[in-house]
Structures are given as C-alpha cells and as structure tokens.
C-alpha cells in the first residue's frame, strides 16, 4: 500500500540520521493489507470476518494495482490538480469561505527604492489585470527609524501597517479608503512575479480558507460557524525550512507547528526528513509548512490586527536590545507560532471538558493576543518560493505532456502530477488584449513538478549557486513577456467604468464580486503611499521613476526598459 509514486531520491542515504519533523496532527494511518499489523488483526477474527476482510483486501489491491495511484488511497490527504488539498477517497466538495457582497482588492507592495525588481513585479501584475498597485515605504531608510538595529525589510511591517492605519481610518482619501472586509494582498516585490490573473488569486484565497476552516472544524469536532473559537481569514505563503533560526533571534517554535496537509509522499519516501549530509539538498524533502513573508493576503481589518501585533513584537525585541534584526519573516513567523500554540492549548482545554475560553473580562484579551486567523498556503498555489526547491519547477506548457512526463521522470516522479491545465484555471479567461489565440495550456507558466502547483506568483528566493540570476534569465520565459508593452499600454488607458476583477460563487445563487479601488478610474499609474507627511497621501509614480535603478545614468548601455521589454523600443510612459 505504501506505493510511493516518487522513487527514493538519489541522495546519499543515511537512514534514520535525518531529523524527522513530526506532525502535530496525526492522520489516521491504516496499515496496508500486506502489513504485519493487518495480518495480526485478521488472525484474531472469526472465520466470517476473515472472508469479509479478504474481500476488502482484494478490492484494495485491485484498486492499487490498477496503477491509478493516490487518488484511490483513502488514507492519505491529496493535492488535486489545482494544488488544493483534500482528504479522503472522494474529492471534497468545493470549499470556499466566500460570502455574498462587493469587496475591493488592493495590492500593496513594500518597496523602498526603484529598480528592476519592483518594475517586474508591478508590470507583471498590471499585464494580468490586477488593480493599480500601491507602493509603501518608497524612499524610506531603515536607519531613520531603527539606527543600526534593523534591516530594510523590517519596513515591510511598518509600511503596510501605516497604510492600513490610514486607509481604514474614516478620514482617508476618497477612492482609496478601505472597508474592514476589503481584501489586501501584500506581496514583497523584491523577487516576485505574477503569472495568473486576479480571479485565480481570489478564488484560491477563498478556497484555501474554506478548506482550512473545514480542517479546523474537524479538529473542533462538531463546532462550526460562530461557535468556532478559531478560523482562517489570512493566508501567508509557505516554505520548506523553518527560518530564521533561533540563533538569529526569533523563536519560531518549529516543532509546535501544524503538519502539512499535503500528500505524505510529496518528495517520495524521504518526505519530511532532513538530509544534513547534503547541504545543498538539506531541506529539500520537507513539505512546506513554515511561514514565508513574501505574500500575505487577508481582509484589511484582520491584516491590520495581525500586522499591529507583529509591530508590537518588533518594538519589544528592539526595546529589549535584541541585536540587529535582519528579517521581518522571523517576527511574522513567531506570531504565527504563538497562535498555533494557543490553538493547541485551547483544543486541549476543550478535550478536557474545560470551557474553551475563560469567561468574563479576561476572554477578550486572550483572544486579542494570540488568535489572528492566520494560516499558510501549504499547496503553494498562491506563491511558490523556489528556495530549497531549486529544481522542483520550471516554465513549461501545461499541454506539453511529453515534456512534463520526461521532466517528472528525471525527478524520479513516476506518475506526473502536472496533468494539464488545473481545473480552477480551465474556465478563466485569458487576460484581455492577449494576442495569438492562446489558452492556459499553451502559455508558458511556472509549475512545480512535485506539488503539481501552478502558482499565482513565483517567488525567486532561491539564491544558491547564483540562482538569483533567474530574475533576469527567466524573465523572457513568462507568458506575458512578448506582449508586455502592449498589455501595459492597454491596461493604462482611460476607462469609463470599473469592471469587476472577479465574480465568485458564494453559496446558493449568490455572488461575491471583487472590484478595484475607485481611484483606479482616474489614476493610471502605480501609487506611492506616504505616511510621514502632515497629511498622508497617495501620489502617482511614473514608470521611469519606479523602474530606473539608482545610478542608472543616461549614458549606460542597457537601460531599465531594455531589460524589462527587450524590444529596442525605448522607454515606457503614460
Ligand atoms: C494555443 O491553443 C489554441 C487553442 O487550442 C490554438 O488555437 C492556438 O493556435 C495555440 N497557440 C499556440 C501558439 O500554440
């Protein structure tokens, strides 16, 4: 029954030496029909039961030997074609936490300086039809805030928080104001590109929450809806390694985090085992279950609460004299870990028949401090970080079955997990203006051979062996690249009316409709949020000012536009 469809990967095998990352939630394990336990079990049964058991065995082995694989192994959680996770023999019914209504989606990109990175993140988003991005932290210097105690990526925390403070406030500018339920997607533009349109992001966000909430309800046996003391509304991206490590300051409680609900054989028989002997592959086989702060998406008010808590923690650490804090990720991850520890405690209380919440005055405080409705993108369907997954994925055509089969085989994946256009992409329209009668199956998309994910965004955080160079080398492999200039011009034209970004089913016949901010009706450039003025505001920024790296003088040979468009047509302006 343990018919791995990934062979033993070719690592120097030191069985038992690797560190096992134990799951918190033990999934039911039914030992295989040939297994010793099953044999012992059958021996103890009366004759009639043996016959029944034999029939079960025949049925099971029949199914398995038909070679269909994990979809028919009811003991394991599976990731389906679109990277969504489900449990059980039957595919789970479509899950979503979408509720009817109208909401807005904003993209918030923390970027303190101009350059190719932010340029590629913004142009890829706009080509795909995302709303006009808002840049926070533009021109900010971490030294002004923290002296020599904190690095520039800590600005991610303060920049997003200040933006949310302002936009959720009643005073904020017309057309930019956010309601608590409006959705904010924070994407770190330093090494990320978009490749799928907003409706995929939105549908997967709601489906991810729907499924996570189902899992939580199962844990909380019987409770649902308003009775649930915990829920998920925020999704952060997930990575393979628990990082930063404790010697860098934060305590991520790596061993207390939930197990990944992804398939247990994601990386073959060594899944979840570290390979300390091979530094370059050390974390490769760990299923992603640790927070990566490259993408965080959630309702404005919930995100505000989460970021406020993260900021408090940052301030406390700086106040306690923690040495130079290099990365924001540890702070986000520590708050996430504390939420998990709190959730486990709460569940224990419940199991012991104690009231889940202390009653009275203390209860609000407890809830406020630890439960932030945060979960992770375990299937990496929103964002695929490439660190420790250096060879796991590539740009490809989903229709090219022969290529996918060959590449999967090279990675020792017997049965390809990329099986054409994912179901949640099939009916999604190709962005307006795309020429050449393309469909998602013959557009060059990044996909992961192991998880089967075709992510909404690609996060180039791989750095080993000079792989950061992919931000240049792979740029022209993205499907939109040959049409980037035309698509951008089209998106930046005047429009008479706003069109919805997505219309999602929200139970019964109802719909949830997502819109850009009304400011997008008149503004045709990315916006820069300034918090440090007497009256905070949002100004527009030109592509020149956003894309041209500092130090790019007029006489350089290759200008930013030569790299971004590579078409010899000069700069881009609107
Ligand atoms: C992509 O697929 C569509 C629909 O099958 C087809 O009409 C088109 O010619 C294909 N384009 C390319 C470039 O392969």
Number of helices: 15
What structural category do the secondary elements indicate? Answer: alpha/beta
Shape: globular
Mean pLDDT: 84
Strand content: 5-15%
Low-confidence stretches: 1-5, 7-45, 52-93
Bound molecules: 2-acetamido-2-deoxy-beta-D-glucopyranose
For the record, the count of structural domains works out to 3
The largest β sheet comes out as: 10 strands, mixed
Region (Disordered): 1-24
Keywords: Membrane, Transmembrane, Transmembrane helix
Transmembrane segments: 50-70
Task: Outline the structure in words.
The protein folds into three domains: 3-87, no CATH class; 104-377, no CATH class; 390-483, no CATH class. It contains 15 helices and 17 strands. The protein has helices at residues 36-43, 47-65, 116-127, 142-146, 155-168, 198-219, 300-319, 329-351, 362-370, 401-410, 423-426, 470-473, 484-491, 543-547, 560-564, and strands at residues 78-79, 85-86, 101-110, 134-136, 183-187, 192-194, 234-239, 290-299, 374-377, 383-385, 393-396, 445-448, 457-459, 502-505, 511-515, 527-530, 537-540. The strands form four sheets. Strands 3, 4, 5, 7, 8, 9, 14, 15, 16 and 17 form a ten-stranded mixed beta sheet that branches. The chain has a three-stranded mixed beta sheet with strand order 6-13-10. It has a two-stranded antiparallel sheet with strand order 1-2. Strand 3 (101-110), helix 3 (116-127) and strand 4 (134-136) form a beta-alpha-beta unit. The longest helix has 23 residues, at 329-351. The termini are far apart. Residues 436-439, 442 line the site of 2-acetamido-2-deoxy-beta-D-glucopyranose.
């Amino acid at each position: 029954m343990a018919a791995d469809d990934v062979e033993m990967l070719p690592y120097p095998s030191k069985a038992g030496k690797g560190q096992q990352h134990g799951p918190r939630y033990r999934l039911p394990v039914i030992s295989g029909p040939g297994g010793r336990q099953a044999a012992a079990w059958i021996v103890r049964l009366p004759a009639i039961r043996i016959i029944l058991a034999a029939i079960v065995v025949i049925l099971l082995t029949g199914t398995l030997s038909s070679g269909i694989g994990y979809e028919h192994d009811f003991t394991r959680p599976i990731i389906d074609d679109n990277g969504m996770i489900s449990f059980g023999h039957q595919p789970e019914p479509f899950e979503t936490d979408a509720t009817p209504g109208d909401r807005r989606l904003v993209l918030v990109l923390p970027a303190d300086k101009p350059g190719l990175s932010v340029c590629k993140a913004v142009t890829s988003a706009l080509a795909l039809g995302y709303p006009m991005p808002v840049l926070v932290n533009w021109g900010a210097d971490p030294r002004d805030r923290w002296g020599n105690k904190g690095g520039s990526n800590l600005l991610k925390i303060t920049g997003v928080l200040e933006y949310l403070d302002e936009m959720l406030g009643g005073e904020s500018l017309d057309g930019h104001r956010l309601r608590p339920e409006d959705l904010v997607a924070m994407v770190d533009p330093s090494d990320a590109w978009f490749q799928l349109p907003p409706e995929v992001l939105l549908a997967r966000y709601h489906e991810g929450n729907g499924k996570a909430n189902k899992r939580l309800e199962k844990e909380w046996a019987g409770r649902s809806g308003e009775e649930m003391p915990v829920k998920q509304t925020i999704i952060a991206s997930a990575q393979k390694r628990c990082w930063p490590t404790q010697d860098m300051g934060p305590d991520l409680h790596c061993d207390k985090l939930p197990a990944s609900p992804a398939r247990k054989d994601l990386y073959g028989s060594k899944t979840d085992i570290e390979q300390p002997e091979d530094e370059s592959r050390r974390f490769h086989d760990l299923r992603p279950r640790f927070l990566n702060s490259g993408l965080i998406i959630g309702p404005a008010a919930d995100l505000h609460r989460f970021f406020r808590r993260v900021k408090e923690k940052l301030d406390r650490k700086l106040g306690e004299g923690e040495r130079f804090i290099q990365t924001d990720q540890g702070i986000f991850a520590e708050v996430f870990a504390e939420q998990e520890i709190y959730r486990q405690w709460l569940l224990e209380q419940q199991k012991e028949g104690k009231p889940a919440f202390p009653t009275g005055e203390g209860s609000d405080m407890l809830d406020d401090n630890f439960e932030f409705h945060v979960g992770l993108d375990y299937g990496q369907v929103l964002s695929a970080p490439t660190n420790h997954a250096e060879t796991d994925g590539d740009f490809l055509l989903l229709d090219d079955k022969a290529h996918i089969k060959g590449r999967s085989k090279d990675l020792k994946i017997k049965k390809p997990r990329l099986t054409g256009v994912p179901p949640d992409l099939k009916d999604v329209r190709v962005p307006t203006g795309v020429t050449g009668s393309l469909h998602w199956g013959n557009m060059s998309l990044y996909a992961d051979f192991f998880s089967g994910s075709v992510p909404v965004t690609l996060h180039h955080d791989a750095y080993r062996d000079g792989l950061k160079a992919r931000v240049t080398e792979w740029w022209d492999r993205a499907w939109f690249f040959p049409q980037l200039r035309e698509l951008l011009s089209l998106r930046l034209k005047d429009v008479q009316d706003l069109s919805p970004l997505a219309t999602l089913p929200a139970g019964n016949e109802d719909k949830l409709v997502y819109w850009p901010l009304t400011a997008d009706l008149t503004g045709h450039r990315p916006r820069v949020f300034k918090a440090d003025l007497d009256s905070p505001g949002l100004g527009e920024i030109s592509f020149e000012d956003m894309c041209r790296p500092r130090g790019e003088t007029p006489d350089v040979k290759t200008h930013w536009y030569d790299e971004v468009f590579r078409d010899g047509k000069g700069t881009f302006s609107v």
